Amino acid sequence: MSLSHRQYKDAIYEQLARIGKAVSAPKRIELLEILSQGPRTVEALAKLADLSVANASQHLKALRTSRLVDAEKKGLFVEYRLADDSVGRYLLSTQTLADSRLAEIRQLTRDFLEARGALEPVNRDELMRRVREGEVIVLDVRPSEEYAAGHIPGAVSVPISELKARLKELPKGKEIVAYCRGPYCVMSIDAVELLRKRGYRAVRMEQGVLDWRARGWRIEAGTGKTKR
Amino acid sequence: MSLSHRQYKDAIYEQLARIGKAVSAPKRIELLEILSQGPRTVEALAKLADLSVANASQHLKALRTSRLVDAEKKGLFVEYRLADDSVGRYLLSTQTLADSRLAEIRQLTRDFLEARGALEPVNRDELMRRVREGEVIVLDVRPSEEYAAGHIPGAVSVPISELKARLKELPKGKEIVAYCRGPYCVMSIDAVELLRKRGYRAVRMEQGVLDWRARGWRIEAGTGKTKR
DNA sequence: TGATTACTTAACCAACTAATTGAATAATTA
DNA sequence: TAATTATTCAATTAGTTGGTTAAGTAATCA
Q1: Which of A178, A194, B38, B213 has a CB 3.0–4.6 Å from the CB of A139, allowing a cystine?
Q2: In chain B, what are the domains?
């Protein structure tokens, strides 16, 4: 039995819509973005995305059936991860489209940044160049698991929750560039706010490892400390 | 009143999900793909996507509120078009992701091509290079409106519906490369089938203008015939 | 002016979805 | 072996969606 043109088209578009359905729920996008920073267990994901465990599990199941994530049982835990790099690139292209088409998203970001006096024009490419050239101290303020799963080469890991206590580790003279998960992640905003209050010269880089990797630049993994 | 972190995140992801919701219905993806070939009226879209006019209008309204398409009243007609190039690039990235993650979509295509004996390994990049260099006759078999809205430079427009009657316009010696809307479009498959049966050397190029433009290559517009 | 054409809207229904609650399963530890 | 922990599953509920039919609007034409 061979398919008619219409049946073939319908079948193709139904498959394409599986991707759309997967990213049609806000919480599923949030889960994907967290996973784009590295693998996580269900419990961790539920906590980070502010979901009940059962609910998170169901969303993850949906993401699994649309093949955007993989799950691997590790003892008592189940570790979820993005299925492959193409998923990260897709997330990035969704963000790009949303940024270019939805005035609301730009407005939200502007309002949020303004409310904490963090609005400043930064030349993204120039900032990224300086980060690549090692001209600044690069501060990764994400949770340490995410740092370990992959970070910008040369970056120092100081999770936002520990920043206050570990301030003295940072030299005061040099400029500090803080980054976290990406443009909509607020940890680096908080970090820069704190650093400036304490007299440091600090700016935020809104790109994260997802963007870094998409540009084909090298990502470093591991804690830096020798393991085992 | 300033937003809490959680409220800000929820608001951001809700906005991102608007894009996902827009492309979570197969018919809306089909409409977007048709529009990626050029502007169309509601009636034309309904017909091409096999929808009732009322239903098409409702899907288009959804696409309008998620800002992926624009509508412009032209006398008695309403002309819809993709809001901007970023929408086309997003469609392409969805296809790429679906192709890489969903075995079903690859299987569907393989089955469909196999059923009409059209399976053949073609080196895409090499084929595109030959098309760019003008080493082959390039045949655009889409409806003439789509050709006029934008086509591969040097391509000849012979809509699939007219191909049989206009075969004699094509020289028999040279190799013919037929293309249409993109990888899931079947018009070029039919064209190649017909051409071969009549003794032409013909192959299909699965990329369309969307892909061409995304690579930064030039697109030509107009009918070629002098208007007015 | 009234008819025609192209499109939108309203009302409706069946099907589906997200989130909650509580029970079930499966691996590990005591 | 029993208890604990991490996750999944099943059942329920409120809310949403896609599609149909029929009525409404707006521009054009006779």
Answers
A1: A178
A2: 5-86 (1.10.10.10), 117-214 (3.40.250.10)
Band of residue B70 on the pLDDT scale cut at 50, 70, 90: very high
Assess B104–A contact: CB distance below 8 Å, yes or no.
Answer: yes
Inter-residue contact B109 to B103 (CB < 8 Å): no
Record the pTM.
0.92
Q: What is the pLDDT of residues A84-96, one digit of tens each?
A: 999 999 999 999 9
List chain B residues with CB under 8 Å of A66: 101-102
Pairing of strands A137-140, B77-82: unpaired
β-strand partners of B188 = none
DSSP at B160:
T
- The nearest alpha carbon in chain B to A115 belongs to B2
The pLDDT value given to residue A228 = 31
Residue B130 at interface with chain A, using a CB cutoff of 8 Å:
no
B85 and B211 Cβ atoms separated by less than 8 Å: no
Instruction: Please provide the average confidence, as pLDDT, over all residues in chain A.
Output: 93
The answer to whether the Cβ–Cβ distance between B19 and A23 falls below 8 Å is: yes
More confident residue, B164 or A228: B164
Q: Report the relative pairing of strands A137-140 and A156-157 from DSSP bridges.
A: parallel
Structural element, H or E, at residue B164: none
Is A180 one of the catalytic residues?
A: yes
Model confidence pLDDT, tens digit, residues B153-168: 999 999 999 999 999 9
Question: Residues of A137-157 as b/e, b for ≥16 C-beta within 10 angstroms?
Answer: bbbbbbbeebbbbbbbeebbb
Comparing CA positions, the residue from A45, A51, A115, A36 lying closest to residue B8 is: A115
What is the pLDDT of chain B when averaged over all its residues? 93
Smallest Cβ–Cβ distance between A17 and the set B5, B15, B24 belongs to B24
